Amino acid sequence: MSVVSGAKLRVSFYTLGCKLNIAETGSITQMFVQRGYEIVSFESSADVVYINTCTVTKSADSNCRNVIRRARKYSPDATIVVTGCYAQLSSSEVASMLEVDIVLGVDQKEKIFELLEKIKNSGKKTTEIDVSDSSDKSFFQRGVSALDDGKTRTFLKVQDGCDYCCSYCVIPHARGKPRSLPLSQVLGEVNRVVKSGVKEVVLTGINLGEYRDGSNNLVTLISKIKDTDTGIKLQRLRISSIEPNKVTKDLLLALKDLPSFMDYFHLPLQSGDDEILKKMNRKYTTTDYLNVLEMIKKYFPSAGIGSDIIVGFPGECEREFENACNFIKSSPITHLHLFPYSRREGTVAAKMEIEAIKNKAAVSSEEKKKRMAILKTIAEKKINDFSLSMIGQKVTVLCENKKNRTGLYQGYTSNYLRALVSISNDKLNLANSIVEASVTKAKGNVLYVSYLQ
Asked: Which secondary structure element, helix H or strand E, spans residue 205, and what is its range?
């Protein structure tokens, strides 16, 4: 563990988990830059390694531990800082790892410089831990992904916390109650991002639909972004994952009225069976969910719709799984993200699993794998069919980079299909440009498009 003086200090970053974590790491990155640090890759030797963690599943915890071990391998003399949701809920476990020097809770991230200075001055090899009680969180940690690294897209954190208490989820324990960035500050951040040259902004939050600033809600925020969209215009706006019960007609009308809005919605479903949804303590039925999707398609006919599914929830029987498969097949969902159920201690679902094991009704690991494979096949067909439906259409693509091997630019359409853009003039530089193109071929989630010059 070392924090040297004299030469320019180097810092590397590794972020696991959601877009909100990416945004928060971005803000911390800027704080390091302002203090004169040099940003290096995670695989390079650094003086400080900053790891922002996730704890949504057991697999996420395991990934975090592996990253921490790799950090010490790449930077044997670095001060290794571990923060985020895993550090918040399992601080003792994280601190017990020999590689770790500093453990910070989700609302203590900005204390990193104070602790780095403390370690530097003391010269002692002790693990510093600063994790507050997650039950009382009012502090709002700023989150804006880096603006000066050539990225075409910026994640802007506008909301934090959740009180929905889904039976399987530990995130409310890690993130605390809902709270939001004041509206005026959101608008200021959007303006700053646009002026930096970034073409696309993604609004993020733990429970984005619960955005509140006094009487202002997410609908107000979207409307205000439109009202202030003058001068240097915001060219693309996306919203990250939003709970189905928060998608209303008013919100869709506000989004429809915003020229920069990109027609992709991510609405976590978690199960396509009503009994399982009830056990999960979700706030909707499959009928409610389908009604929301139909409303989205009414206002955004070409919208991409992503969703999450938890496979093998405690007690999920064959009939309930079959119901879920049939619901997904018949729905307009286009992008599907699958997760095997993972027990999180302290949750209601963890108790359900123990009871299911006693009653020999638990879903075995082998059965989870079988069901995951079935749903993966359904998911592949859904996205492939959606991509094929785009052939012959004109799309706009935000080009991110040029692939060296193929010479094709890569980017995303408004409805979040990956696009490979061919151009006839090799001298054109389309990086960080929004172009109009025609879809000529599709495979999986990839569109092959020709740039309309």
From this structure: strand 200-205
CA distances from 407 to 124, 152, 189, 398, 402 (A): 53, 19, 35, 16, 6
Rounded to whole angstroms, the Cα distance separating 334 from 337 reads 10
Burial 307-319 (b: 16+ CB within 10 A, else e): bbbbbbbbbbeee
The rounded distance, in Å, linking the Cα atoms of 174 and 134 is: 6
Distance in angstroms (rounded) separating the CA atoms of residues 389 and 445: 11
In the listed set 234, 262, 290, which residue is the last one of a domain according to the structure?
Answer: 262
* pLDDT higher than 90, residue 106: no
Give, as one character, the DSSP assignment of residue 362.
P
User: Hey, which bits of 98-192 come out as E strands?
Assistant: 102-104, 128-130, 153-160, 179-180
For residues 268 and 239, state if they share a domain.
Answer: no
State the CB neighbour count (10 A cutoff) for residue 165. 11
Phi and psi at residue 286, in whole multiples of 5°?
-65, -35
Are both 272 and 289 inside the same structural domain? yes
The neighbour count for residue 382, using CB atoms within 10 Å, is 21
Residue 59's domain is classified under what CATH number? 3.40.50.12160
- Determine contact, residues 163/177, Cβ cutoff 8 Å: yes
Distance CA(425)–CA(453), nearest Å, equals 9
Which residues sit opposite 216 in a β-bridge?
Answer: 213
Residues 144-168, mean pLDDT to the nearest whole number: 85
Question: For residue 401, what pLDDT band results from cuts at 50, 70 and 90?
Answer: confident
Q: Which of 88, 115, 130 is the last residue of a domain?
A: 130
Alpha-carbon span 353 to 393, nearest angstrom: 48
**Residues 55, 174 contacting (CB under 8 angstroms):** yes
Residue 147 is predicted with a pLDDT of 60
CA 93/CA 131 separation, integer angstroms: 13
Q: Indicate whether 283 and 355 sit together in one domain.
A: yes
Residue 292 contacts residue 269 (beta carbons within 8 Å): no
> What is the reported pLDDT for 83?
94
Residue ranges making up the domain that contains 269: 264-389
What pLDDT shows up at residue 92? 93
CATH number at residue 312: 3.30.750.200
Q: Is residue 445 part of a domain?
A: yes
Give the C-alpha separation, 94 to 91, whole Å. 5
The beta strand positions in 109-199, using DSSP E, are 128-130, 153-160, 179-180
Mean pLDDT of 370-385: 98
The verdict on residue 3 lying in a domain is no
Residues 178 and 205 occupy one common structural domain: yes
